[in-house]
Amino acid sequence: MKLTADLHVHTFLSSCARADALPENYLKRCPEEGITTVCFTDHFWDEGIPGASGWYRPQNLAHVMRLREPIPPEYEGIRVLYGAETEFIGSRMSQTEGGIVGISPQTAKNFSFVLIPANHFHMKGYTIPASVTDASDIRLWMIDNFNEAARVSLGVPTGIAHPFEPMGFDKAVAPAIFEAITDDDYRGCFSLAAAEDKSIELNHSVLDSPFYEEYVRIFSIARDCGCVFHTASDAHTPASFSRHDSMARFAERCGITPDRFLSIK
Ligand SMILES: [Zn+2]
Ligand SMILES: [Zn+2]
Question: Is the pTM of this model over 0.70?
Answer without folding.
Answer: yes
